[in-house]
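Anyone have tokens for Cohesin loading factor-domain-containing protein? Sequence:
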Amino acid sequence: MTYHDAMPPGQPYGIYPQQNQNQQPQQQQQQAQQAFQPVAGFHHQHHQQQYVNGYQNGHPQYLQQSQHSQQPQVPYAQSAYFQAQPTFDSNNPVDLSNYSSKPTTSFAHTPQTTTAPVQFVDPSFLQKQHVPPVQTNRILPAPHSMTLPSPQLPLPQISRHNQQIPLQQIQQTTNQHDQQQRQYQKQQQQQRNTPNQHHQQQARQQPYSQPSQPQSSPHVQTQQLHQPISRQNGHRPDERLLQPQATPAERATPRGPGRPPSVAKLSASAQRTGHVETLPLLLCVAEDCFAKAHAAASGIARSMSDSEVKEYHKMVATGLGCLEVAMNSNKLWPRLEARLCLRYASVLIEETTNIMEAETALTRGILVCEKHRFIDLKYCSQFLLMKTLFQRNPRAAFKSLDTHIMDATMYKHAPWVYAFRFLKAAFHIQSGTAADHHALENLRRMASIATTRDEKAMFVMVMLLEGLSHLNTMKDDWINRVQNCIAQAQKLQFDDAAHLPQLDVLLLLLDLACSLRQKSHRDAAQKLSVLQSKLEELRNLPSWSSVSHELLLPIRRVVNDAAPTLSRDTEAVLRRGNGAFDYLVLSALGKQGSFAMAYIFNGIVALYKSTTLGRSSTIWTEAVRLLEDKNSGSGPKPLPDALAHAQWAKGVSNYAQILVGLQAATLSDWRKVKACLDALGTAQQPEGFLDVLTLYLTGVFRQGTCKLGEALVIWKDPRFAMDRSGLPQNNTSHIISELCILAALNRIWIMQAPAHRSDGETAQLLDFLRPLCEDNPDLDIRITYNLVLASITLDPPLPINQVKQHMKLSLNGAQNTSNTHFLSIALNIMRNKLFENVVGEQALKSARAGTAQAKKSGNLLWMSVAEGMLAQSLEQQGLKEEAEKTREDGTRLANEARLRTQVE
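Reply: yep, here.
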């Protein structure tokens, strides 16, 4: 800041102005230019007094040659001293009528030179008016260590003709004005000051209300002015008295050439407030909003209350607004700008559908990163950009990913090669092409890199992904491919580096699922026991958190100090480790989900044990309870991620409910089936196999409760439609394909009833299903198809040899799968087709075997049918008493089955 804001022009260098009043006028021009050169202190003998033209801020005002001449700066200590706040003394009023906020050069009639002596006010008046500086601990340079007069006290101004004004006249003139001034200030403060402003004003006045006691200086009451005082009765105050004290930053800033030397401020309290840097404040507010919203996301995802969702969106919108304002700031250094673009785009991708805006922010950040070589932020921004691109153009995303993979491979940035290749694998899974050649080739490239770099956990994870991809296919050699992947992963079972809790559990789950799909239930029971032991071992493991769903795959650290590729800003994808390894962050099955999946597999294995009839429903109910537990811990996460996790848990829970309903239908417990359907009806099923599976359970319920017409309508639903290749329309899931085949077989069985018989439609369906079922990789589908062909009546009927062939295939398949329900149906159909009205021991053995297997299955309908055929065989053998008792049991079971259908 220039001289004008540092101290009044023409400041004298002695205590009293009379010390230098007789100097020669020819020295004025030279001394006016040298008076305030920056020096360490004042030297009295080297400076001469100038002629005084007026008083300003308690010091004589001297003539200047040019109003617009540039003034030199003064030392900071002097500037701070002379900028102290002016005060008033009501006991010694002064004349304010001729005060001016401008320098003395503003007086038009002021003579430029004069030799007449200047008469000053008596020095005792100055001593009476003296008030010490506000900050008494300042070290002020002064001549001969003598005390300077206080700048806080306004002194009377000398007239334009350099005549002395009597003190009595000065006091009389200002008494009335001071009273009016105090009245005006009181009114203004009462009307305009808020309570907060009043407290601030009191805090500012506190240092002035308790001044230190100077030598021979009486205590003076001071008053702070906040509003300009209007001119009344020809008197007006000095406008500089209303100006606030300049800050050090303002004193150091030079004044522009067009700005007047002194400008009246609007409010002293407003100007005293220091400048607040808003950029850190905006960033803190944004992160606080995101943290608060993410902490409540898990609860909101379960309840989905409108008010909670609205509050969540409000918090996210506030945070995004703060980030947007911060991004538009011109105070961003390059790395902060790149980080802001990355953070802003990541929130947009996670929380909103503003894909184009996110791409714009990421593109801006990538340009900054390329300019300043921020490789870590560049890779992370490209990673997010591929996610946004995949949402609107998957083919372009795959091509761009290949380019980024080539670049990372060329620069030997192996962590980012893994990251981009895993992202590509995720895109293939979302596209339903996980088992395609390009997807498998991508996984094999990762396995090769992991083998070369000796990263065993990474190799196991890649083998798991490839095994899961083959498990979802309908190829003939799927079992060999899956078993090969499991064997490749298990060969590292004795290496500690290959063992992670999530990887061990996922590997056991994959092996168990493979055995279940093979219908190898004995092996499945053994593998289930191993899985349960492993889960009990890992239940209380600290490294496997119940809250987090992250899987950290170790990667050998690549040292590149010149351009680091990993940092705290990449922790969402790649995370720095403490030792020789960094980590690739993946989202995997959590501890709660692992236990739930183990419960579901346990129930499926228990289905094939005749000694555990109904136990599977209890196990699946426990899985539902575990998944719907609201007290289970969950860390902070965005609402879409929380919704995805909640939907996954709800999907697994619904699947368990469907399994409970299907087993209840096998046991003729239709009331329980209806309860399961009611529970499923309250939850909206997303489009997919769960939706079709729920529809299938509904058809089973209608058919089992003797509502064949409604069941036939359900089996003809478009969701069960298939093309000639056996694939369901608009879906390629093998689960839905199997459900469509089962729906068509149920239609054939219903059309055997006289009320719904249709030989033409039956023949058409059989021709359609024959190529799909005879060579189907699922053994249960083949068994069901052979049972239907062995039991139905066609026109013309099938030859007896074909019927025997179908019965043989179904019976052998039921024995291989240990399915008691299939076995009871096959034996009873064989008794009906081959030993009807046949007398002999073989016919009786067949009837007894069918009855025994029906009792093991627990199905009341087939139990009543088996008892009736056994009674008929006994009667033909001459065992009438036993036949009568058996017939009564069959009738009782049939009546009970009929009563169980009355659920509506």
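The domain at 691-900 is CATH 1.25.40.10 (Serine Threonine Protein Phosphatase 5, Tetratricopeptide repeat).
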